[in-house]
Specification:
This protein is α+β, with helices and mostly antiparallel strands and 173 residues long. 38% of the residues lie in helices and 24% in strands. The chain has helices spanning 5-14, 34-41, 52-63, 80-93, 147-159, 163-170; strands spanning 2-3, 18-23, 67-74, 99-104, 118-121, 125-131, 137-142, 161-162. A hairpin with a 5-residue loop joins β6 and β7 (137-142). The chain is globular, with a radius of gyration of 16 Å.
């Protein structure tokens, strides 16, 4: 069942224990602020207000005892967009308590190949996401059964490493 942007947003306000995201694309620039990407690539300092609304939302959720975490499937070399997302987004978001894991498939088969991006809330609600060109967000659909999505999360987590560990080896120097 397709859901509206408002309904999708409410899922982040109503979950009780945990919200998990699987990210599978190497370019979401169509859903991002092009000026921020340009500034990052130009080596400009990150503006203090960058992504602040999300950081505040995560901080409130984590502060109330909820867990927010994600696995991003990547391969090296990273695209310019991924260098931006990880270097500015993940580094800042983790200060609010969001947890990040990297499933690096550079030298191995992707164990979650064919699974689209999704958010899973409390293992009871899954919103699979659809993207267009350059990762432009097109919409979300509530999935009727969560069993396969719980399984996909487990596989992704088993093959992923903590972002800080991976970034220390492969990130921007």
């Amino acid at each position: 069942m397709n859901i509206s942007t408002d309904e999708f947003g409410k899922l982040f306000q109503t979950f009780q224990r945990e919200a998990f995201r699987l990210e599978t694309l190497d370019d979401y620039s169509g859903s991002s602020n092009p000026e921020m990407i340009r500034a990052f690539l130009a080596g400009e300092p990150q503006p203090a207000e960058y992504n602040q609304q999300w950081v505040d939302d995560v901080s409130r959720s984590v502060g109330s005892g909820k867990r927010m975490y994600r696995v991003h499937v990547v391969s090296r070399p990273l695209t310019d967009y991924l260098r931006f997302e990880l270097g500015w987004g993940y580094v800042k978001n983790q200060t609010a308590g969001e947890e990040f894991f990297i499933l690096d498939v550079t030298d191995e088969e992707n164990p979650v190949s064919g699974i689209p991006d999704f958010w899973m809330f409390d293992e009871s609600r899954v919103a699979s996401m659809t993207y267009g060109e350059k990762g432009a967000f097109l919409g979300a659909e509530l999935e009727p059964d969560t069993q396969e999505w719980v399984k996909a999360r487990g596989i992704a987590m088993r093959h992923a490493v903590p972002f800080s560990e991976w970034w220390g080896r492969h990130g921007e120097k």
